[in-house]
Design brief:
430 residues, seven-stranded mixed β-sheet, 40% helix, globular, binds pyridoxal-5'-phosphate
């Protein structure tokens, strides 16, 4: 595989951009080698600047539920650009998208649009603190909620991949207000609440985790979490930046049957443009300025380009009744194929999947939390990643990320992936 131009561009990029990339996990640091520079994407395929084609499962880290450059989003964007890119004043489209979000996710009675998932989570926490007049928050080890200071404590995703789950630059004061519990362990939550009685404003959780690989919250755990939050007047925030509109039309809360007080969104909600949102109970959301005193603002928030792409994506979801059923079928097909390969090779690796999010962990432990996730052999993952890539299958370059299946991955794509999986695993497993 020729990678000459990608290598040249990466060397050039490193001179001007820290690490040569604008977001850390793109750099292939944990899997070795240099990142590919991409020229274009179409459907389930990506094309690099050297002309190589890949069937890919990153989907820009989640947004591309319908694959790359779907015609209905492109059309909406071209139409919107005719009228102007940003007005800094309200538009009808903002009302339409807010209304549609409240329809698709019933726990969301009001919603505020922002520009990224990080903005959504930090604003949701501020709203919760303003509402409860309390300051501390609880998060879970290995969950990632964006890069705001008080979330970079035992964080997942790139922070975990690069071995910096607690980032320098975060002040002790900031870190002190974030308490960390163990995922799927209600005892660890109860202990923190007891030790910090009447001080916890919010519990933020990925109800289905993507950022230490895919892990689903157990039913009894998430039910107990909901109950404790109600009893203790703690705002329960579901971070659905990744799972929103991904695992079901109504997100992880639909899959788990639990209503949070606030929900954060990103990725799919922007149809591939930089968008985030947070929403939930009216009494909490009305704390947000200008209806309430909790300040939150954004120059480009709700801008017409982002809203038109997001509205096109959500309308497509709203109108296509069997979208998630079909996605489940193709995702299960891939899961079954990979599990069959692992069995044939007499291995017992864990495969976790919820809807179109999936992870193959190089461990025979059941992966239910951070401690079990990190039993994965990341060296093996690195070899697997590189071998898959050389066979034209582009996975997320980290053990601790999800693989995303899109609505346009064909049976042929999936069969090629299953075949490459078998050949790659056989190559280095004895
Ligand atoms: C669950 C979750 N929350 C928050 C974020 C941060 O979103 P963004 O990268 O748009 O700031 C991410 C990003 O991957 C995420 O997966």
């Amino acid at each position: 595989m020729n990678k000459t131009l990608s290598t040249h561009l990466f060397n050039e990029a490193k001179r001007y951009i820290p690490g040569g990339v604008n977001s850390p996990v793109r750099a292939f640091k944990s899997v070795g080698g240099n990142p590919l520079f991409i020229k274009n994407g179409a459907g389930s395929k990506l094309y690099d600047v050297d002309g190589n084609e890949y069937i890919e499962y990153i989907g820009s880290w989640g947004p591309h539920l319908f694959g790359h450059n779907p015609p209905f989003i492109k059309e909406a964007l071209l139409k919107a650009i005719e009228d102007g890119t940003s007005f800094g004043a309200p538009t009808e489209l903002e009302v339409k998208i807010a209304k549609l979000i409240t329809k698709l996710v019933p726990s969301v009675e009001m919603v505020r649009m922002v520009n990224s998932g990080t903005e959504a989570t930090m604003s949701a926490v501020r709203a919760a603190r303003g509402f409860t007049k309390k300051e501390k928050i609880i998060k879970f080890e290995g969950c990632y909620h964006g890069h705001a200071d008080y979330f970079l404590i035992k964080a997942g995703s790139g922070a975990l991949t690069l071995g910096v789950p607690d980032s320098p630059g975060v002040t002790k004061a900031n870190a002190a207000d974030t308490l960390v519990a163990d995922y799927n362990d209600i005892g660890s939550v109860k202990k923190l609440i007891k030790e910090n009685k009447n001080e916890i404003a919010a519990i933020i959780i990925e109800p289905i985790v993507g950022n230490m690989g895919v892990i689903r919250a157990k039913d009894d755990f998430i039910t107990a979490l909901r109950e404790i939050c109600s009893e203790e007047k703690i705002v329960l925030i579901f971070d659905e930046v990744m799972t929103g509109f991904r695992v079901a039309k109504g997100g992880a809360q639909e899959v788990l049957g639990i209503k949070p007080d606030l929900t954060t969104f990103g990725k799919i909600i922007g149809g591939g443009l930089p968008v985030g949102a947070f929403g939930g109970k009216k009494e909490i959301m009305e704390m947000i300025a200008p209806s309430g005193p909790v300040y939150q603002a954004g120059t480009l928030s709700g801008n017409p380009l982002a809203m038109s792409a997001g509205y096109a994506a959500l309308s497509h979801i709203n109108e296509n009744k069997d979208l998630y059923e079909n996605l489940e079928k193709s995702s299960k097909y891939l899961e079954d194929g990979i599990k069959e390969n692992i069995k044939k090779l007499n291995k017992n690796f864990s495969v976790n999947r919820v809807g179109s999010m999936m992870s193959l962990f190089f461990t025979d432990k059941e992966v239910i939390d951070f401690k079990s996730a990190v039993t994965s052999d990341t060296n093996l993952f690195g070899k697997y990643f590189q071998t898959m890539l050389s066979r034209g299958i582009y996975l997320a370059p980290s053990q601790f990320e999800a693989l995303f299946i899109s609505t346009v991955h064909s049976k042929e794509d999936l069969d090629k992936t299953i075949e490459a999986n078998m050949k790659s695993l056989s190559k280095f497993l004895k």
